[in-house]
Amino acid sequence: MVEKYDTVVIGAGPAGTAAASSLKAQGQKVAIVEEDLWGGTCPNRGCDPKKILYTAVEAKEQADLLAGQGLNTQSSIEWPDLMANKRSYTKQISPGTHESLKNNGIETITGHAQFVDQHTLEIGQQTIEAQNVIIATGLRPRILEIKGKEFLQTSNEFLDLDEMPESITILGGGYVAFELAGIASSAGAKVTLIHHNNRPLKAFPEKLVQTLCDQISENGVEIILDQEITEIQKDNTSYRVIGNDFDKRTDRVFAAVGRIANVDQLGLDQIGVEYSSKGVKVNEHLQSDVSHIYAVGDSAASPVPKLTPVAGFEANYVVDQILGDHKEIGYPLVPTIIFSLPKLSQVGVTAQQAEEDTDRYQVRTVNVEEWITYKRQHEKQPLVQLVIDQKQDQVVGAACLSMEADEMINYLRLLIKHEYSANEVSQTLFNYPTIASDIQYLY
Q: Model pTM?
């Protein structure tokens, strides 16, 4: 017998579980399908375990900055202990998520889902039907198509290393590459980061990126730009990374060259749903070419950063769509961050966008090294960059490079969203001296 459901969700990550739980709470008969880890990438092998590792290296970095300034410390990362701490968290995620879904009355199905027709899915020997389908299958690391690609590892393996190798090489110049480089370097590895062109982190302001590169280089990370890697060779217990006039030995090689959507094995071709490596093509209602099949989060080729808060936002939106609210999606301001050493974060109108309309926008970069927030912890070249709409006399975008960038951008996001003027900011009182109280001096 074919079981029928109001909605079937493919993928049990943050987006999929949020959608399934909300629809079940509204009285729908819901099933959710997962072929890997319940809970998805973020809590199992992504942002959460990465942040656990980062917390230790961040503490070490802050202690190192204060060495000789009243703090007597010889801090070091004990990788096996740090990994045990990480695993104590992640080991409970998948079974805990699975149990929670079942306890909420949601049918959980383990296996790979594939469309038979526009309403029918096969999972192994099981066949189910759905009035609506939500695709929330996430992303997977991309592997370079080069000779010896089988020797490449990804962030999945990095975040579960038993021991930190003496030397590692990271291929890539994006978020993941810089985050892994900072963690590994702080943990004692000799790190080489190789990017195929001369502009890493191209979504962020060039001045701040260059300052970040200078700082992590001073901390021991070798950055090699404009180098195309063509081959990886295994040499006994080490590896050779080979490019144009380039040959380097290393203990491990990690590919951090982007991620691709897990939608290419769902049988979408045979049901008329267009997709690419960026995800399922969706309209302003997050519908695919087949109106009752939606895509959310990392599985959707939507024009926003692929982040866990965005996935949750889109999941809640699709729930409302299925329940009868048919307004077009409107995205809030989405802050982005790289948990490097130091952190790099931004929100709103970017410096690149501002440069395309200099009559309207002014970009102002402030070195806040002498400000008490940063001077007390001896940070090197912390920078804040503001994008100002000269017609409205309001800050509409911001970027920050510092150990406090995450909190600074969160505060600035709220002020930008509510269109605070410089006068309104000056009339707002914060605890002093804090990151928040610094804002009035930026405006």
A: 0.95
